[in-house]
Amino acid sequence: MNQIEPNGRRDVLRRLLWPSLLTFVGLAILIGLGTWQMGRKAEKDALIARLEARSRAAPTTLDDALAKWREGDAEYLRVTVRGVLNHSKERHLYEPHKRYGAGYDVFVPLLVEGGGRHLWVNIGYVPERLKDPSTRPAGAGSEEVELTGIVRLSAKPGTFTPENDVAGNQWYWRDLEGMHASAFEAGQTELIPFFLEVEPKADLIQNSDEWPKPGASKVAITNRHFEYALTWYGLALTLIGVYVAFAVGRLTNRDPQ
User: Fold this and answer.
1) φ and ψ at 186, to 5 degrees?
2) Are 125 and 95 a contacting pair, CB within 8 Å?
3) What region, left, alpha or beta, does residue 14 occupy, with left being phi > 0 and alpha being psi -120 to 50 degrees?
4) pLDDT band (50, 70, 90) for residue 81
5) Same domain, 180 and 231
6) Cα dihedral value 83, 211, 53, 223, nearest 10
7) Are 108 and 93 a contacting pair, CB within 8 Å?
8) Number of domains making up the chain
9) Residues 138-167 pLDDT 10s
10) What is the pLDDT of residue 256?
11) pLDDT digits (tens, 9 = 90+) for 160-181
12) Which domain does 13 fall in, by range?
């Protein structure tokens, strides 16, 4: 194989300096992104494990959940609570469903047993035609209940999430304080600082005529970070391959120019 002369080789090495530096910078970025995704995967694994463990645990009391909330560790706890649902103050969160089509998660204030405190409860999904509570068996009145569900916190809108239409009672993200302020005058009642998402009581397919359907908008935590990490690591390997081919071609070429 023909080799280039020493002076020519030094010239080629000088010409490889910037491609080499840029390649090393690119590798650092790609490997860093892959490692970051692996860290995110570990965080999601822990979150999913906590959700699964709490979903199988015995339900706790509302006061115990409040104590956990003050410690910053209440989300996904199972809670059993008694009180009176006020359907006249329902709030509707737009939630398209892959099986039932356009519809809403129904949020209702529950006057907690003992009085003075309201807990907002997601009692389940309804299709568009049943958005009005008067079209459902519970009607627009009050209903005394005992409910078990999981604690959910107030959310924040995403970049492309529409603004909540408070006047039209059309919500696009879980705004606990906004829902409460739209239903009650300031200081009228004490607000429990989280939602309760009611558990499904029966199979949704077998009981297709029961509305609202608790659990139809099931909590799902996606965890595709391992795939993302493999993508970044794969790009890093590709970059190495491209650089090696480029460098070998330069070092073995007769004409360094």
Assistant:
1) -60, 130
2) yes
3) alpha
4) very high
5) no
6) -130
7) no
8) 2
9) 666 777 889 999 999 998 888 889 999 999
10) 45
11) 899 999 999 999 999 999 999 9
12) 6-46+224-252
Tokens of 91: 């709030």
> Which token pair is 245?
């081919």
Q: Which residue has the tokens 């035609």?
A: 129
Does the residue 59 lie in any domain?
no
Q: Judging by beta carbons within 10 Å of its beta carbon (0-12, 13-18, 19+), is residue 150 exposed, middle or buried? A: buried
Looking at the structure, do residues 186 and 120 belong to the same domain, yes or no? Answer: yes
Are 194 and 234 members of one domain?
Answer: no
Quick check: is 69 in a domain? no
- Between CA 215 and CA 95 the distance in angstroms is 12
> For residue 152, what are the contacts with CB-CB under 8 A and spacing of at least 6?
75, 76, 122, 174, 194, 195, 196, 197, 219
**End-to-end alpha carbon distance in the chain:** 18
